[in-house]
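pinned: reference chain
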Amino acid sequence: MDQTLTLILMAVTTLVAAFALYKARKPLELGRSWHVPWNGILFLGLLAFLLLLRHQLSLSGIDLPAR
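pinned: its structure tokens
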């Protein structure tokens, strides 16, 4: 995966996480039987962003020490 695609995916995951945060903060509608787990989607969006950030740093030549 090249640098341009990584930056595009980072932007997409930022938008997904921002939308999930917006939806998670809204009050639930009573009477609905099923709700989308927005907090889980927010977690996955942030996790994907962090993984892409680590990949971007690797592409830039910055090596972080392994744990």
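why pinned: The chain has a mean pLDDT of 92. The helical segments are 3-25, 38-59.
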